[in-house]
Q: What sequence folds into this?
């Protein structure tokens, strides 16, 4: 049997993750299996277990990557110092999430199952990237809105992050959901992740400023 180079072994987790990403473009979380993922890679299904014990761990690795990339965007917003005022800041953050719809989709649909079915070391690695974005968001708020107290910045973060868990389904309702709303006499409103996020941040900063003025 030919030996596999250390470089190929090192690259295999990324190959598995990329295969899962590709499948997720056209399939749902529940449709994707380790067997389907293995078909998109050079590995057999048993070989995948050398790197990931469950499908959920692969999706967690995607989320870790996505939060790492979003953290890089937040770092740029912090470094550039050009997102002036509530509207400028809302614009910058909304733009940063516009290209992170995979992040929003995974965590709005399947995060609980993903975290429950992943090993603690995998979950911890993800939480490191997640925590980095919180620290960067706090840094952005501190720089752009120096009048906000630590409590007010924390209040903003712990309203905005739960919002992120629900924005994707509003921006991407299924045809079945749209039909059900029409049958119920509702008029669906088509909005993008960018539009919903921008308005939410602008309104949230306004409420935060009002609470600050009342103190």
A:
């Amino acid at each position: 049997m030919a030996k596999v180079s250390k470089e190929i072994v090192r690259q295999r987790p990324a190959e598995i993750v990329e295969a899962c990403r590709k499948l997720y473009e056209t399939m749902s979380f529940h449709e994707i299996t380790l067997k389907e993922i293995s078909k998109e890679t050079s590995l057999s299904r048993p070989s995948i277990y050398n790197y990931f014990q469950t499908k959920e761990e692969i999706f967690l690795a995607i989320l870790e990557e996505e939060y790492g990339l979003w953290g890089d965007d937040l770092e740029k917003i912090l470094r550039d110092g050009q997102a002036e005022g509530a509207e400028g800041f809302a614009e910058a953050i909304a733009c940063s999430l516009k290209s992170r719809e995979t992040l929003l989709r995974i965590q709005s649909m399947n995060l609980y199952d993903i975290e429950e079915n992943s090993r603690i070391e995998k979950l911890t690695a993800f939480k490191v990237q997640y925590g980095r974005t919180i620290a960067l968001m706090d840094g952005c708020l501190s720089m752009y809105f120096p009048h906000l107290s630590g409590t007010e910045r924390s209040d903003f973060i712990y309203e905005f992050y739960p919002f992120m868990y629900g924005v994707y389904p509003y921006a991407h309702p299924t045809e079945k959901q749209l039909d059900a709303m029409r049958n119920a006499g509702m008029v669906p409103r088509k909005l993008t992740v960018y539009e919903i996020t921008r308005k939410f941040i602008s309104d949230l900063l306004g409420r935060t400023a009002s609470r600050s003025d009342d103190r």
